[in-house]
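Quick look at the format.
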Amino acid sequence: MFGVMFRHNDGYPIVLTSEIATASDTFGASVVGFASAIPENYFRRRIAHMFFRVSSDREGRVKRAPYGLAKVEAALLHYGFSRSDVVIASPYKLDRVIGPRTRIVGIYTMDALGLSYGSGILYWILKLADLPYRGLPYIARSFMEVVEHPAIKAHKDHIKVVVGGPATWQLVDTGAWQKLGVDVVYEGSFENYGPVLFERILKGEDVRGRVVNSKPPSMEEVPTIVTPSIGGIVEVTRGCGRGCAFCTPTLNGMISSFPFEGHIDKEIITNIEKGGFKSITLHSEEFFRYGAKGIDPNPDKVKELVVKAYKLIKRYGEDYRLHTDFTTAAVVVQAPELVKFVGEYMNEGGDWSFIEMGIETGSPRLLNMLMAGKAKPFTPRQYPDIVEQAVGILNDNRWVVVGTMILNLPGERDEDVAASLELLDRLRKYRILTFPLPFIPMGALRKRDFTVLDKMIEDPLRRELILKALIKSMEEAVRSVELIVGNMENIVAKLIIRRISLFAFNLVLSRYKAKLGQLGEHSAEFIRKLASAALNLPGERDEDVAASLELLDRLRKYRILTFPLPFIPMGALRRRDFTVLDKMIEDPLRREFILKALIKSMEEAVRSVELIVGNMENMVAKLIIKRISLFAFNLVLSRYKAKLGQLGEQSAEFIRKLASAAWDISKSPVRIPIDEANQ
């Protein structure tokens, strides 16, 4: 279209690149890229550049690119620019592609300032393990290396720096883009407006500021990639449609699917033939809803896609593999047979693979408030059960789940965190990495303040959730280390990274367990004081016992063992007579209280028997004690219930008498002084 041909030492008119950590395929294992969130005090410049290598030709054109950047290049070429106009360049070789003719440097960023979920969790991982954290996450430092590159500075008088990608909100919300010399911050889909903007800049228009393209392109407007994508990624859907308030895919609207013929197949071929990949990842925000028109999945469309993609990659060899990356819990439970079908293709031969699932919260209240669509077609109240079922189904089909749980969501209360803790305890028996994430403003919530990470880990309840989630994650990471490094192409690097990873996982794991033990001792004492109701306290009256009975009834829906304790004189009360235990259980009101408390305790003990015997080292003894315990718990439980039935509801009658007396009192006139100044 433009017919522009320049010698490369004069520079390309349009240079596309990304921060170093994002540009690297980390030796072919993109999951290892998680290390990019490690702070710079662990990554000296030379070591970082060795680890985050970028494969490119002599002129600087990369052989593989981040998928989003490859899509930008594809849109520009589709619009009419030529390969002589546009280059995706290695951030290490910008001096070879930027020159007098360069007009645009487009930088793709995943975490420009280190404020993403990944960087937040690495902060917690190191802080809670008492490991030093200094400076920026390396991914943010590598963004600075690019935006402050000498080649850009040398030609700044005729270059517009345009930054796009998932992390542009960080630059906008902090105002950092202007301080860094960024001319344009581009947000939203690129295909249907980005090329027009670039053309305007090339024509000399003085375009500056924030550009937001809120209109998603039609699927026909999205061209296929020309440069292979890091990780062998092939996008099969866009959008989600579940409407979570904090998530950027929400901005793309309802889920839309790309056709296999002429789109998905072309990108698979590009990644295999030009990129050299033997593993293809069919990327989707919710893979099992490929081809769907609404919330409900379309199993036939998903099966058709999987079979066609599988047959295509197997043309290149039996060792070629097919994967996907994201799902929700709801669709897995809604279509378990579909999950099984897909698993037979993607995890063939007994192989395991990772799949991400945003759990986000175990609180039905919070789910209903911020992301009710996440549970559809089920209800928010059912969501914790749905999550557990989904993880089990995915495990049954050889997927290790990477589950995220967000803390500090708008409107979060302690009871929401407690609900997430309960769900976390239920997930302990499954193969899942549970990552606690700090809330980061995105989508419709981008104007909230940033999470103060230190304050969150200082809160005992949230600290417990973070520690338990990280312990589960590290335990599974040790077990799954071969999966983590499995796709690394360099055998030496693979061996080194494997050993370093195992050392790091076990180091932080031991420290987390020690800290949780300290926290647990404090929590256990606190819970014991709350859950143990003492009877026969000095001055105790029947109405006090009735009040305790009412509280006990309110606690029935929670996971709690309620132990009734007889008052034992201590401290200043030592001189009192000891409690006569028999007299207490002969009293109908107190007998009812004791029976109800013990029934609740025994019911929970049956449910928690694995926790009770969990740390026993002798397996035979563990099995015997478990069976004896279950027999004993159920025996006394049945007898308590029978006795409670015989006893009847003594307290109900007593409470009615109290209420009647209160009503009689309320009929008497009472004069209440009012401070008019405080009305």
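Next, a different chain entirely:
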Amino acid sequence: MVDDSATNLLALESILQGPNRNLVRASSGEDALRYLLSNDVAVILMDVYMPGLDGLETAELIRGRDRSRSIPIIFLTADSTGGRHLSRGYSLGAVDYIVKPVEPDILRTKVAVFVELFKKTQEVRHQAELLKQKNLELESANLTRLNMLIRLGQELAAEHEPDRVLGNFCRSAREIVGAEEAAVGILNGHDDGLKHFFRCSPNDWKEESEPIPGVVAQSLKTMMLKRRSLRLSETDRILEDPKNVSVRSFLGAPLFSAAKVCGWLYLLNKIDGDEFTEADESLASTLATQVAIAYENATLYHHVQSHAEELQNEISERKQAEEERAKLFVLEQEARAEAEKANRTKDEFLATLSHELRTPLTAILGWSHLMRTGNLDDPQLGRAVDTIERNARAQSQLIDDLLDVSRIITGKLKIEPHQVDVCGVVAAAVEAARPTFEAKSIEFELDMEAKGCFVAGDANRLQQVFWNLFSNAVKFTPENGRVIVKARRNDDHVNIAISDTGIGIDPQFVPYIFDRFRQADGSTTRLHGGLGLGLAIVKHLVLLHQGTVEVESPGEHQGSTFIVALPIAGEEDQVSAEVQPNGSEDRLTEYATLLDGLRILVVDDDADSRDVVEAILNSCGSEVNCCKSAAEAIKAVRDWKPDLMVSDIGMPLEDGFDLIDKLRKHRSKRARLMPAIALTAYATKDDKARTLAAGFQAHVTKPVEPEVLVKSIAFAMGRIR
């Protein structure tokens, strides 16, 4: 036990104290090395952290000496992770790591295994020495017997299977002593039954099922009680039994193992003699000792061999694990480089995101401040509103792109395929993008030879694909440039190519053009904004439609061409979907009286959100009552009796789900049946499914579109269909 703490040594000693167990203390690595110079131990318990020589250094020195190289070492450490010591410790031959505080039962069990192995090893050595001593004693016997005994010893030593050891011994013992029959039996250790039993005569082996003669069984019983050899002749009372007609003389000897009787040897009927001699008795005792040792050695060898195979397998597994660890280390380095690269890309993206979010906020806050002063004339006021709306929609588009990328990463971005006229989708996307290319006087040319080509896809997602590509082309094409869109049918695919006369793409950047967060120019001096998400979303959406998207560019300042290939729909796609171009929403003024007379309860913990929703609903003729918590809303439902509720989902203390649950369980029938609209920033399909399942009639996402909110309320109240 090696530990610089006397308290720890005392604790280990109290745990491991036992009979016939010598516990040696060492308060340092140096003390342990001095003790091992002249002593052997069964196992070493060593603390990893010690002043001077620590546990790992001490273990390395122990492994450097032949005498102590094979001593098993169990490291004790208070480091629960242990990761940085495990590899080195196992390479130095550690058999285990135990984390402090030590579990006494676990420690006793593990130490007992190595103590028992040490005892067995010592016992094997002792038995080997004993066998050597007995062989020396047999040298005093006659030459013939000596040669036979030597040959028998060689046979037994060379044989490692316990059964074959006993079989060979039984035959040789009969020949050496000169008996008509010989038998050897090994007790099973539980009762008087036999674990092994061999009998032989001059002609052949006797059947194991053939019963032992009664006088022999009685003689063996007497011999086992006396625990020494027994020699009988016809004049002895046991053999005088009238029923005995085959046994004229008997010679037996017990087999001992660790001072316990483990079996017996008997020989019957001396050849060329009436009875066995004292020399035969002495020889039988010697043979019994020899076979007991040989049998135990074979058994131990069998166990050790099995254990050695297990150790070899474990070593092979550890070696394989080391090789795998080395490979993993290389992979880890590569992964770390990739992670660092990704981290740099992430930092660049976050910086870009901050810029792209703050830029429209500057315009929004600036114009809001000027509007608050009241010094703007009507044209300036209209310009302020247009600017605020345009920048708010730009922020909304950034958030939508981020949400799409999140769905892509988590595998939740799905499409709803229908039979879609791809040229109609392209035309709708062109209309949506028209204000941007007209602002830069860009010539936009459509060449649609593939009219009437239908694909199985999601019309809205396909429109998003082409709108992103058109916006990308306009962004990187200078004023008075040109964008050409061509649609061609190619066998079972329809190809849509978008070519521009813009700044082109560096050939080295082409392989990364569709990667998330990657931009050809990510510096602070770049000419073009954006997050670098649009093309990544395009590629994923095209792949969801079983299509491909590629890019071609001769080089910088030579324009670029994006080619989308989509499989043409088969006849089995029967359901068609119409494309609704973006930007065709009805204006809010058309709904000025749509909500006349409705009492609407608005619940939101954010005051600004409540104010804007109240203003929208008031402008459409409804009467609005606002609450900032679920508790206030329940009170308002009881006292004010609204016709409909618009509620946020994420609120402190009690959220929108708690509120709708209380309403649907309210004792008032009016409250239980009152329509409810969820107005929330949780915008995924799963969020929508959850709100509808909770009892809301509609799910409207923030930032709120006034027309969408008003139409959702009107629909829930049955005023429109």
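The chain has 19 helices and 20 strands.

See the schema section for token definitions.
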